Amino acid sequence: MRFRSVLFMLLLGCTSWALGQQQNSNSHADYFEHYEGTKTCLGCHEKEAKSFFSSQHYQWVGVASHISNAKGKKLGKMNTVNDFCTNPALNWIGKVENSKGMVLSTGCSACHAGLGLKPAETISQEQLENIDCLQCHASGYRREVYKNDKGEWRYRPILWDNQEGLDSVAKRISLPTRLECLRCHAASGGGPNFKRGDIEYTLADTTRDYDVHMGKDGANMECIGCHKGSDHRVKGRGADLSANDMPQTVQCQDCHKDAPHDDANLNKHAARIDCTVCHIPNFARTDATDMHRDWSIPSYNKDSEKYSATISLQKDVTPVYAWFNGNTREQLLGEPLHKLPDGSVGMMIPEGSRQDPNSRIHAFKLHRGRLPYLKDKNWILPIQVEEYFKSGELEDAVKAAAESTYGVKNAKYGWIDTTRYMGIYHGVRPKEQALSCGDCHGEKSRMDWKALGYSGDPKPVTPLPARASAKRPGHGERDKNR
Fold first, then answer.
1. What percent of the chain has pLDDT over 90?
2. Cβ count within 10 A of residue 290
């Protein structure tokens, strides 16, 4: 709770900046008198709501064209398992409190752009009115979980009983700013930057040195500058997301040339090495990120009276590197465990190799975990974590998930290590801070060349001072935002 209070104040502090970015150019001050929920938005935007209903941001499943073993199935958060909070469908909405009345969790739907109903496959008026437009389009909007007249958990604005204040927030409409995007994407996994590692709250108001694209003294771009698609579809999926809204991915080459350097040797590297490798030397620079989550060992926080997995956090992390051709193999529910050479289950494993001309070396966060599996079937298991946060009854949480997911009562289960590769794409450093030759070649190389398919360092060099690239011939004075 203490963390949530601090986070709330941080977000409020960023609100004035976000509003300044929009200059109130999309203000809805003259379009309606009082905000009465989503039906107010539907009066003018029913077409947009219908479009959003079928998007991945609402459905949390979609076309999985880049998952090599999807076999045509639609995949996403709702029907897969992850090694963080495991599965949102099992942990959707509620209010778990400790003995002091402090809220421990409201469920995974806290980051869903809906008002508490699970997304349905079939569109309906009820589903359209469940869309929470303000979650992405109104700076300063906040909501809380409550029980409606039917005893069902739902969300409502925290200003629900202050019509004047609610109207003020609801008329403050704009395209999504970094603040709105970070509200969910930086908080996923249970804490600031826990999950992604490269999406930090710092990006809401930062400098070019921290991220050349988002820095106010750099390109000062919003998230939608790269990720905007059409009809509420968002471009990009990274390496460990099951589905994609659009067939197009987000690549540096969308804005920058295929040969972006003045040096032919650097351009040769760029042909097989993703830009992120050199331009994101490390991640989790401000907030430590979750590098290992062991659900088999309960951890208890006495201050918050909350149980959780045992989580290992790390700051200033050096990425790992692997070939990636855009496709990923995923460990799916109801399929035999796919084990890697080290015996762990490959939750999300990028495909590609040195021999594959469509592959490039990419930077990744390598997340390790430990999850339950169904012994009789050799299937991965999620966990029903919400009540576990309060009770600490881990066996009950696992068996409840086995029954909900597979219909297996009193399941016999074991524990197994997991491995997940997560693409690193944010926090792009300027050329002055990019890797130098000596960072990858020579005695202090950060590369595991054998794992990448080489017999050894392909081009040993005399190590140069780290990040001295700006002083080397060939880096040139190209676009300052690279």
1. 82
2. 25
